[in-house]
Amino acid sequence: MSSPKSLHGVNYAPPRSFKTVLKANLKETLFPDDPFYEFKNEKLSKRILKGIQYFVPICQWLPKYKFGLFMYDLLAGITIASLAIPQGISYAKLAELPPIIGLYSSFVPPLIYAIFGSSKHLAVGTVATCSLIIAAAVQQKVMPEDNMELYVGLFYTSALISGLLQTALGVLRLGFLVDFLSHSTITGFMGGTALIICLQQLKGMLGLKHFTSRTDVYHVLRAVFENRKEWTWQCAVVGVIFLAFLQLSRYVRKKKPNLFWVSAISPIIVVVAGCLFAYFFNAEKHGIAIVGKLNKGINPSSIHLINFSPEYLPAVVKAGIITAMIAIAEGIAIGRSFAIMDNEQIDGNKEMVAIGLMNIVGSLTSCYLSTGPFSKTAVNYNAGCKSQMSNVVMSLCMLLTLLFLAPLFGYTPLVALAAIIMSAMIGLMDYEKAVHLYKTDKFDFLICMVAFFGVAFISMDMGLILSVGLALIRALLYVARPPTCKLGTITNTAFRDIEQYPGSNETPGMLILKLGSPIYFPNSNYVRERILRWVRDEQSLENSQRNEIEYLLLDFGGVTSIDITGVETLLELRRCLAAKSIKIILINPRLGVMEKLIATKFIDKLGKESVFLTIEEAIENCSFSLNSSSQAKREELEIA
Amino acid sequence: MSSPKSLHGVNYAPPRSFKTVLKANLKETLFPDDPFYEFKNEKLSKRILKGIQYFVPICQWLPKYKFGLFMYDLLAGITIASLAIPQGISYAKLAELPPIIGLYSSFVPPLIYAIFGSSKHLAVGTVATCSLIIAAAVQQKVMPEDNMELYVGLFYTSALISGLLQTALGVLRLGFLVDFLSHSTITGFMGGTALIICLQQLKGMLGLKHFTSRTDVYHVLRAVFENRKEWTWQCAVVGVIFLAFLQLSRYVRKKKPNLFWVSAISPIIVVVAGCLFAYFFNAEKHGIAIVGKLNKGINPSSIHLINFSPEYLPAVVKAGIITAMIAIAEGIAIGRSFAIMDNEQIDGNKEMVAIGLMNIVGSLTSCYLSTGPFSKTAVNYNAGCKSQMSNVVMSLCMLLTLLFLAPLFGYTPLVALAAIIMSAMIGLMDYEKAVHLYKTDKFDFLICMVAFFGVAFISMDMGLILSVGLALIRALLYVARPPTCKLGTITNTAFRDIEQYPGSNETPGMLILKLGSPIYFPNSNYVRERILRWVRDEQSLENSQRNEIEYLLLDFGGVTSIDITGVETLLELRRCLAAKSIKIILINPRLGVMEKLIATKFIDKLGKESVFLTIEEAIENCSFSLNSSSQAKREELEIA
C-alpha cells in the first residue's frame, strides 16, 4: 500500500533537546510578554540606560515631563488628596489604629510609587478590605486597648511581609500566581467584605461603645442588638444625613459622569462639615464621639516597632500573605484596566515590585499596607491625571496637612467616618456583576457566591480559601475531562463537530474523533473509556445506519500536551482496538506531542504510515486500502 | 462588503439550557463509560436481571461456568494459596500483627471479591506498602507490646474506614479521583516504600531484638548500626541463603517465562524448609527466632474490636484514607492491565465497590486491608486462571490451612520471612521505569523522584503528598499556560504551526493564531499578553519581511472551554487591537465556547460578520476587503 498523494510530509524531526524545551517553557511561564524585547540588538550603553529606565520608570517619564501636563496633575493630585484625608482616617479607624497612621500612609507610599510605578493613573492609598483582614488577624494576638504600641507594630510587620512577598513575586516573575484569584472570586470576596464592613459601621452610626472583634454577619448583628441600650439617636440622625448626602453625590456622578468631582470631594465636605458641627455645637456632649487629638508632624520611623517574635509571627505572616495577594490583585487589575482605556500596557511583575517597594519603605515609616484602590484611581483618572506626578502632588498635600492641619481633623465625628466607609462599601457590592455571572456561567456564579457567603458568614480568609479552592477544582475538572467530539465532513477539507453541525456527513468505515487537550494522568482513563464508548456507540447503531469501523482517526490538532501516562493510555487503546480489528490513525500531532510520541517510541510502534498531516489525506489513504481490501474480498469470493 | 462565498453557515443556535448542559457535563464527569448502555431498550424483567448481574457479577459468570474451566482455576488457586501463606505471615509480621491475621486476611476477602468483583485475574491479598503505612500511623498511638488488642482493633477500624470510603467512591462514581495518583507518583512511591521495607528487613536478617518504629532510611540505618551487638551471624547466613534462592527463582522466571511456577512456589519452599530446619536443628537455641504459636481455627468475629474513640480516630482515618486510595489504585490498575491483555474491560467504579465491600466484611472478621497485589495477580494470570473461581479455591486452601496446618507454620524462622519480603520488595523497585521517565519526560521523572526520596527520607505520607502536589501543579501549570502558535499555509486548506512546519507561507495583512485550551482565569492575562506579543513580533520584523497586520485570525478550533474571565480578556484584547486598527476574526468556536460567547453578548459586540467556520473562508473574506480598501486608497490617490 502506498500513499496516493502526499501533500506535505509529516514532520518527524528528532525531539528538541531538554535544554531547548526547558528554556522555551520557562520563557512562556515567566516571561510571556518578553519584557526585554527592547534591549535586543542595542549597544551596551544604550542597554544600561534602557535598563535603568525599565526598572525605575521615573527616569523615563520625568525628563520628558512638560509643565503643560503639570496643571492636569496638580488638579488631579489635589482632588485625590481631598479623598485621601477622610479615607485615610476612616480606614485607620476601621482597623482600630490611631487615625494619624491613615494620614501617614498617604504620604510616603505615593512618593515611592511615583518613582518605581509604571501606571499613570494608579492613585495610592489604604483599602478597607485589607485594613479589616490585618485587624482581624492581629486582634487574635493583641487588642489595641491592651497594648497599642505592639498592635501598631504588628500592622507594620505585616505590611513589611506583604511588601517583601510582593517584591519577591515580582522579581521572580511569579506574578501569574495572582491570576489564580479569578474575577469571580474577587467579585464575591469584595461584595462579602463590603457587606460585613457596612454592618460594622452600625457601631459608628449608632454610637455604640461596646462591640465584637469578630467579622461575620451573625456576631456583628448580635453585637449591635445586644448593646441596644447604647444606641444614640443623635448619632443616627447625623449619620443618616451624611450618608444620604454621600449617596446623593454618587447618584449625581452616575447620572452626569462629568460631575465626578462632586462625589470626589463629598467625603472631605462631610469631614469638614462634621468638624465644624462638632466644634461649634460641642457634639461630644450630645453623645457624638469624635476622633480625638491628632498630633502635627510627619511620619516617624517605625523600624523599632517591627516585631518578628515567634508568638505573633504566624498570624502576622498569614495576614501579610493574604493581603499582599489581594493588594496586588486589586492594584494591578485596576492599573491595567485604566491603561487599556488609553491603549497602554502594564507589566504586572514590574508593578508588583513597585507596590512591594512602597510597602517595604512604608512599613519602616509608620505606614501600613497600601495599594491602588479602585475608588481613588477612578477619581484620579476622571480628574485628568497625566502621569505619576499626581501621586507626588497628593503626597505634598498630605505633607502640608500633617505639618499644619492635622489637629483640626481631630474634631471629625466618628459617625461621619462611618458614613464615608458605608457609602464607599455600598459601591463595592457589584450585584449586577453577580447577576451577569448567574446568567452566563453558573460555575463562575457559584465561585462568586462561595466567596460572598464564606466571607459574610464564616470568616474572610475562609471565604477566600473556599472560593479559590473551588476555582482550582474547576481548573482541575477541566484537565480531568477534556472534551472529545465526533467530526463529520462539511466540505471536502473541513471537518466539524457533528453535534454542533448536525448536517455534516460521516465517512463509511471510519470514525473521526477530535481529542481535547491535554492528555494527562488525571484524564487518561477517561480518554480511553470515552473513545471506546464512541466506537461502541458507532457499532451499536441500528442496522441501516451501522458503521463497521475499520479506521479510527484521532485528530490531535487540538492536543497541546501529553504526559507519560497519556502515552501509555494510547498504547492500551491501540491494543484494545486491535482486538476489534480497528486501526488507529493519528492526525496532525503538534510539536510537543509529536516529540513525546517519538521519544516514547509510540510512533515506531504505530508505524509512520499511520500518521497524517490532514484529515483528508488520511481519509484518502484509508479509503484506498478499504476499497482494495473489499476488492480483495470480492476476488476471493469469485475464486471460491 | 458581502461574503464572496459561504460554504456552510456558522452555527449561532441559542445556548442550550442550563439543565441540558449540566446533565451532559455530569454524564461526562461521572459516567464517561456509560455503564448502563446495555439496559437501554430492554424490558423491565430483563432490566432487573441485568441489573443484578451488573451489581453482582457472580450471577453472570457462575451459571455459565463449566467444569473444564475449573481445572485451570483449581491449579491457579492452589498456586496463589502457596504464595498467600508465606506472604500473609510476612506482611502481618511487617505490620507487627499476630501472624495468624495474615492468614485470616487471605480467607474471607477473596470469597467476597469472587462474588462482587469483575476481574477474572485479580488475586486478593494483603500488601506490604499498606501494612507498613497503617502500622506507622497506629504506632503513633499505641505500640503492639503495650496493648495488642487495641493495636489490632485499630487495624480493623482502619480497614473498615478504607472499605467504607472505597465503596462510597465507587457508588458515587468518584473513582476518577484515584486517577490523580499518576503512574509516575506510584512508581516513585512503590520504589521508595520497597527501599525502606527492604532496609527494615535487616532487623530480621541480622536477628535484631531492638529496632525503631520510624520508617525513614536515616532512622532505620541508625537503628541497625546502633544495635551492632545484637547481630547474629547464624541468622545472617540462613537469611542470605534463602534470599539467594528466592532471587535465583525470580531470575529463572525472567529468563524462561513458562517456568513462572518456580518463583511462585519458592516462598512456600523457603517457609517449609525453614520450618523443618527450625524444628530439627532447634534453631531457636542458635539465635534464630521463630514465629511462635499459631492457633487452629477460622477467623473470629472482630466487631467488638472496632474502635472509633476520638483519641485514635484521626490517625486511623488518615491511614484509612491513604491506604484506601493506594489499594484501589493498585487493585484497579492491575485488574485493568490484565483485562486489556485479554481484550476485556474493567469498570473502575464497580471494582471499587467490590474491593470496598471485601474490606468492610474483612474488617468485621479479623482481616486487615487487602487488595489485588501485582505479584499475586501476575502469578494467578500465569498459572492460567479463567475466572474469579481461583480466588474461591485459594480461600478454601486457606480454610484447610487454618483448620489443620496453622500450628506447623509456627516454626517458620523470622529470617525466612525477612528474606521473602526483601525478595518481593527488590522486584518492586522499578528502576527501568525511572530511567524511561528520565529519558522521555523530565517532569514525570521529577514527580517520581519526589515520591521516592520523600518516602525514603521523610515519611510515607509526606512523600505521597509532595508528589501528588507536584503532579497537580503540573496540571495547573498546563491550565496557566495553554500554548498558542502561529499558523502558516501548507496547502490552500491546511494551516499548520509555522514552528513545526517551517516551510509554510504566511498571508500578507493577516496573522493567524491557534489558541490553546482552555481560556480560564489562571491564563487569561497570559493569553492576552502572548497574543499581543505575537502581533508586536510580527510588526517589528525587518522592513522587507514586515507584515502590516490588519486582521488577527484566532483559530478557536482547539479551545474547548472558556470562562467569564476569559471572555472579559477577549473584550480587552479587542479594545487593545482596535487601537492599532487590527480587527479580530474568530474561526470555528466550538459548541460550549460559542454558547458562552453568545450568552455574554461577545458575538454581538464583535459582529457576526467576524466569525467564520474555516480559516480559508475567513482569509478569502478578509483578502476581499483588504484588496478593496487598498483599491480605495489607490483611487483616492488618483483623484488627488
From TrEMBL, chains A, B:
GO cellular component: membrane
Domain of life from the UniProt record: Eukaryota
Keyword DNA-binding among UniProt keywords: no
Membrane topology: Multi-pass membrane protein
Cellular compartments annotated: Membrane
InterPro entries attached to this UniProt entry: S04_transporter_CS, SLC26A/SulP_dom, SLC26A/SulP_fam, STAS_dom, STAS_dom_sf
Record keywords: Membrane, Transmembrane, Transmembrane helix
PROSITE patterns, per the entry: SLC26A, STAS
Coiled-coil stretches noted in the UniProt entry, renumbered to this chain: none
Membrane-spanning intervals of the chain: 67-85, 97-116, 122-138, 150-174, 180-199, 231-248, 260-281, 315-340, 352-371, 443-473
Molecular function GO labels: secondary active sulfate transmembrane transporter activity
Domain STAS: 500-622
NCBIfam families in alphabetical order: sulP
Protein name: STAS domain-containing protein
Organism: Solanum pinnatisectum (tansyleaf nightshade)
